[in-house]
Specification:
Shape: globular
Number of strands: 8
CATH topology: Rossmann fold
Strand order of the largest sheet: 3-2-1-6-7-8
Number of helices: 9
Structural class: alpha/beta
Number of domains: 1
Largest sheet: 6 strands, parallel
Radius of gyration: 18 Å
CATH architecture: 3-Layer(aba) Sandwich
């Protein structure tokens, strides 16, 4: 008989860290010489296309990340670690980190399920107490280098598909007790949990998620000894 493992699901952008992370990642890579300055034009065109055609979110993300073509995993892992350490970690919500630590202490398995790119999200377990990361895949070619293309955008219903695939591969039965998100795009993921939680959500969004709790988290104090 398979044992039961308690699981908590967390979105990242806006949930554990305020704001978007992909644009800051591009900015960091341009500054570090990993992406050309003209990449801003490509990203801008992709964003404008998304505004005109909201269903083309994946295309906009692919345009932003196309500079990865030809980069090695090792090169980008080192860059991703510096990006998280310098640009994201100082912005993590203090209450979010405390919640992760509390759940981990209670032997809850923690999954980060994010629409952000796995080129840096896959390194997040080095900076946050999470067990596994499911994120938008940046594809690689036969040589192991990035192709500049992305897989399915891990957003909305895709979060459920990614979680179900992960769940089916586990040696234990899993029970989703908690799920934390911050936007309407997280509603499918929140529906998986017995205790859905919205971070810094307005009343309209909260009213659209049955049984949800709302928490209000402040930006992290980089000088706190947490």
């Amino acid at each position: 008989m398979r044992t039961m493992r308690r699981v908590a699901l967390f979105d990242f952008d806006g949930t554990l860290c305020p704001g978007d992370s992909i644009v800051p990642f591009l900015r960091f890579c341009v500054r570090e010489g990993l992406a050309p300055r003209r990449q801003w034009l490509r990203a801008g065109k992709g964003y404008l296309n998304q505004l005109l055609h909201p269903e083309r979110v994946r295309s906009a993300k692919a345009a932003t990340l196309s500079f990865l073509r030809g980069k090695s995993r090792e090169e980008m892992e080192e860059a991703a670690d510096r990006f998280i350490r310098e640009k994201l970690a100082p912005r993590f919500y203090t209450e979010g980190i405390r919640t992760l630590k509390k759940l981990r202490a209670e032997d809850v398995q923690i999954l980060l399920i994010s629409a952000s790119a796995d080129v840096y999200m896959n390194r997040m377990s080095r900076f946050l107490p999470v067990d596994e990361v499911l994120a938008t895949p940046c594809l690689t070619g036969p040589d192991g280098r990035y192709s500049g293309e992305i897989g399915e955008n891990c957003r909305g219903e895709e979060k459920i598909r990614r979680f179900r695939a992960w769940q089916a591969a586990q040696p234990e039965e899993t029970e989703v007790l908690w799920a934390y998100g911050d936007s309407a795009h997280d509603r499918p993921m929140l529906s998986l949990a017995e205790r859905p939680v919205l971070v810094n959500a307005n009343e309209k969004l909260a009213a659209s998620v049955p049984g949800v709790s709302v928490v209000h988290w402040k930006k992290r104090d980089a000088h706190a000894g947490d």
